Amino acid sequence: MTHPVVLTLNAGSSSLKFGLYAIDGAPVEMAMGLIEAIGRQPRLKAEFGGAAPAVTRDLAAAEAADHASALDTALGLLRAQFPQAQATAVGHRVVHGGPGFDAPVVVDDAVMAELKRLSPFAPLHQPHNIAGIEAAQAAFPDALQVACFDTAFHRRHPKVNDVFALPREYYDKGVRRYGFHGLSYDYISGELGRIAPLLHDGRVIVAHLGNGASMCALQNGRSIASTMGFTALDGLPMGTRTGQIDPGVIFYLVQQEGLSIDEVRQLFYTKSGLLGLSGLSNDMRTLEAAGTQEANEAIDYFVFRIRRELGGLAAALGGLDALVFCGGIGENSRLIRERVCEGMGWLGIELDRGRNTENATVISTDLSRARILVIPTNEELVIARAAKGFLDAAV
Ligand code: ADP
């Protein structure tokens, strides 16, 4: 007997995150895993809920030489654990949906061609997402392949937040402010609707603070502004990315320092942010523990930019009813949450230190005009729900 399931895939540049969901009713996670350092010295981590002990092991190079072989390895593991499971749909995280995709979509030949056409918008990510879809098509020729976009949630934001002040022809060519982390914001918006419907309908700022970091202003649960722009490089400083930077710096680096455009790209994406400023690490835990001047300055800059964006997004919303923290740092770092909220009484935010230390869901004081919440995000579940939605519609 077979048991229909949804598989979710999130293919990064050298990683593959995979999830397996039971879909008898609303999707329920059965397994979640990650293969890192694909093509180098791959490692595997996987959890199976209560069904079996977690697995962590180094892989042989051939077990994850590329995304296709990494998927084979992941599937081998899942099949051994859940022999009856049969993937009837595979949901994919796709970084860029361009101006056109404002919702998940079933991948057919035309969609695939469009995803490839959009690759230049996200050259470091989109090709890996496409490789993931192709590998899944080969492994599950009869399953629905569903693409879920990081940009889609923002596509209906107001035009004023969609444009750059460039000649109009570039807007028409797709040079727009897209915004990313949309699957995370979609999840948080849904959770707010479930646990605090009044807040959901109000003015909310979500700070997704992980290795990648951005913030989004939600009104009635919809994105009206966010900190990321044309690429996932803009806005807040991140683990290794610059965040907002004067584009004049690029001209200077190329013309005066002799860097090639590829070198500037490498610098901005992989050597900057917390890593660049601290000279130590992209990992917030390491920086919090380090206590060196450089590490502290990196934290100071991270916090400063979050607070600036908080003010800016609150202005875009015309006030603030709730601030939500999520992502690895937002969900776990008491220090960053405390420092972001410090002295923000003018915005109606008052942190309860005790609740913050306990990592409670609501960490504002009872008198705080705006609520402060910590909500663990779940991008994979958003993908699984979308895939299940298409399966239900096909019945
Ligand atoms: P990604 O964007 O890659 O999904 P995550 O959302 O997993 O990243 O976030 C990773 C970040 O979260 C790292 O900087 C890590 O140090 C930070 N983090 C995780 N746990 C803690 C903690 N207890 N205290 C501070 N930072 C933490």
Automatic annotation (TrEMBL):
Please indicate which superkingdom the organism of origin belongs to. Bacteria
Sorted alphabetically, the keyword list is: ATP-binding, Cytoplasm, Kinase, Magnesium, Metal-binding, Nucleotide-binding, Transferase
Per the Swiss-Prot or TrEMBL record, the active site comprises: 150
Give the required cofactors: Mg(2+); Mn(2+)
Q: Give residues annotated as binding substrate.
A: 93
Question: Hey, which pathway is this one from?
Answer: Metabolic intermediate biosynthesis; acetyl-CoA biosynthesis; acetyl-CoA from acetate: step 1/2
Catalytic function, reaction form: acetate + ATP = acetyl phosphate + ADP
Q: Does the keyword Translocase apply?
A: no
EC number(s) recorded for this UniProt protein: 2.7.2.1
Residues that bind Mg(2+):
10, 379
Which EC class is the enzyme in? transferase
- Annotated cofactor note: Mg(2+). Can also accept Mn(2+).
Site entry (Transition state stabilizer), positions: 181, 241
**Kinase: present as a keyword of the record?**
yes
Q: Which NCBIfam families match?
A: ackA
Describe its assembly: Homodimer.
Q: Which HAMAP family match?
A: Acetate_kinase (MF_00020)
Function of the protein: Catalyzes the formation of acetyl phosphate from acetate and ATP. Can also catalyze the reverse reaction.
Q: What is this protein called?
A: Acetate kinase
- Give the species this sequence originates from: Acidimangrovimonas pyrenivorans
